[in-house]
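Support case: user asked for a sample of complex input and structure output to validate their parser. Sending the pair below.
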Amino acid sequence: MVEKSASLQEGDAAPQTRIQRAKRRQILEAGLTVFSEAGFRGATLDRIAGEAGLSKPNLLYYYPSKEAIYEALLRDLLATWLHPLQAIDPKGEPVEEILAYVERKLQMSRDFPRESRLFANEIVQGAPRIMPALEGELRDLVDTLAKVIKGWIAAGRLAPVDPHHLLFSVWSLTQHYADFDVQVRAVLNEDDPFPGAEIHLDTLFRRLLTP
Amino acid sequence: MVEKSASLQEGDAAPQTRIQRAKRRQILEAGLTVFSEAGFRGATLDRIAGEAGLSKPNLLYYYPSKEAIYEALLRDLLATWLHPLQAIDPKGEPVEEILAYVERKLQMSRDFPRESRLFANEIVQGAPRIMPALEGELRDLVDTLAKVIKGWIAAGRLAPVDPHHLLFSVWSLTQHYADFDVQVRAVLNEDDPFPGAEIHLDTLFRRLLTP
DNA sequence: CGTTCTTTTGACCGATTGGTCAAATCGGAA
DNA sequence: TTCCGATTTGACCAATCGGTCAAAAGAACG
């Protein structure tokens, strides 16, 4: 147990005790709550520290700055957020593959609304810190999938649609229920919008995509 | 030239000279730019003042506080924002009425992206200042239109869809192109996403709604 | 017990922010 | 011109913010 902490950033191995890992998780959990509610600039270290049950200097002992917490969150969550997209199977039945993707995304809006709002805040304000990932990882993933969709359409197994705009539609329709939750609930009569949303989106995409 | 204007605002009479009105418009214009980029908390009076070409105390001579500017903006823009909805004609041809509404909303995303982002910022962060309007004006408008749509469906002139979720779909799909503009452009190959978006959304809603 | 490393904290700092105020300046009517 | 209200501004203030630091408090181990 000599080299306790060499370089604790990404890239290198980051040897951490179980306590350190637990505290960092606490901090990221608190950061997720606060950043998703208030955006980067609206969040304060005091609130994050309070939410995590730590003092402000103690929080800064584990993460060197507010930015470090925010960027750690963005980095960690991007993979999770993109996962449903990667799970689409090019060998599957096209319409059902996309409908399943829509349902997975909708489930994420229901189960992880903070994550959705974190990205929404970031992107609405110009994506100042996640732009590289958008133009890199995301774009590559999207381009790959666009080709798959084009193949499906060429084979007559999917109604002709612009693949990119199809993906935008999936994102906006599903994430709307997390990001604009308060508006949805203010306008809707029911308490839980998701049962209705699931049926609606299934219908919508089925009609759009069935050849 | 005493009583220039009687009561153009809500509440009390607010007599204003032409100069006052012009400066206030400058300030609201600058405020729209800054608030839509940074959200309420991210915006600073200095930036708004700079954008408006005024000193900070001078700005505060026309509006008593940062909140006052922000709320004036929200209040003034809500009507504009809701206008395309009110323009739906219950006596019209159902599918075409809704398609026209979609196109109007998409045009607004293209022509007034700042306004769209202003609301997006507000709502993503819990709509702390516009909630009453959501539960009042907006909800009433939506409920009225929901009945019209239900009537259309009952008459077999529109495919059966949940009216509320239909409206959510219109909002999310159209506003996405304004609010998540940077993401759309980062992923897309074209420069201007709107021509493609218009075709796509027309197809999408036509297939969804045609009985 | 003492020693050494890790963790926690109170006190503090400089920068920024929203907002105030008194004084200066402007602009038009007489 | 003079006068008077409307407008503009530099100087300033209190609160808040992100972040530092030295010292205290634990923990681990012999």
